[in-house]
Amino acid sequence: MKADPAITVTGLVKRYDSRAVVDEVSLTVEQGEIFAIVGPNGAGKSTTIETIAGLRTPDAGTVRVFGHDPIGDRTAVRGLLGVQLQESSFQDKLTAREIVDTYAGLYQDPLDSGELLDRLGLGPSAGTRYAKLSGGQQQRVSIAVALVGRPRVVILDELTTGLDPQSRRETWGLVEDLRDDDVTVLLVTHFMEEAERLADHVALIDRGRVVASDTPAGLIGDAGLAQQLRFTTAAALDEDWILRLPEVSAVARDRHEFVVTGDERMLFSVVSLLGAHDIVPDRLQVDQPTLDDAFVAITGRLLDTDHTTLEAAR
Ligand SMILES: Nc1ncnc2c1ncn2[C@@H]1O[C@H](COP(=O)(O)OP(=O)(O)OP(=O)(O)O)[C@@H](O)[C@H]1O
């Protein structure tokens, strides 16, 4: 039997000055998955997760965290949910260890702060004041704070914004470790690469609404984007042979370089064709569409349908 979802959001509406910044959002985050919410600036991502965390009151709709209402059942939800909010800031003069200890004091059975800091690679910096930590270390302190209460679900908002590529990759490793420990992760990001790499499920939010929701592969597949295959060969090869393949929609040629566009079955048929003519291509490369491409395609389609602007998606 399938486990109950970790988080369900149904018809959530949040208004500011009568403007709905979250407009009938529904989401289901299954236990043990990494669920990413992506979308342009101002789309309503932070408002959605802050409402899930019980920090904002919905104007309509329901939010449940393991069946509990974050506002009506605050104590139960606090024990189940860890939250790292965008631009968390802590007292500059406190050390990493003191900050985590302070939050540990809020829980009945917290993790050992020293062990947690060690696990997050902060052992050597445990005695360093927050203000003296690097950006990546400060982010890890905020993760430690989110994890110290042994949450079953953790919300991470723009976790890797401002980190250098190496710290970002290390942080991705930490998020994957959480999933390996059966912690459900709801993350907000505007890095498509991050969502594609980490998430089991992605919801794309735009102007307060969920406009697409699926696995990264499902979103890319549904966007109907073509693949490209590039190769070079000095052999006698007529591009019409390739163009006749039903999987191929276009062939561009620049002397010895061929760029073939087609659907996902194109690679096999083109390579088979080359093999049948005893042609071994040089520098064969497949360009797969990415989640970023899918995002642009999906939001572009929305643009086509209602003629409104979507600056951040461009
Ligand atoms: N307390 C508030 N009062 C009035 N408007 C607000 C408030 N908080 C957020 N908003 C507005 O609601 C909209 C959604 O904001 P939100 O922070 O949820 O978006 P976001 O998708 O998280 O954006 P970003 O990626 O820039 O953080 C924005 O237009 C924002 O200006």
From TrEMBL:
Membrane topology: Peripheral membrane protein
Keywords linked to the UniProt accession: Antibiotic resistance, ATP-binding, Cell membrane, Membrane, Nucleotide-binding, Translocase, Transport
Broad class of the protein's primary localization: membrane
InterPro entries: AAA+_ATPase (IPR003593), ABC_transporter-like_ATP-bd (IPR003439), ABC_transporter-like_CS (IPR017871), ABC_transporter_ATP-binding (IPR050763), P-loop_NTPase (IPR027417)
Gene Ontology BP term (one): response to antibiotic
GO CC term (a single one): plasma membrane
Subcellular localization(s) per the UniProt record: Cell membrane
Descriptive protein name: ABC transporter, ATP-binding subunit
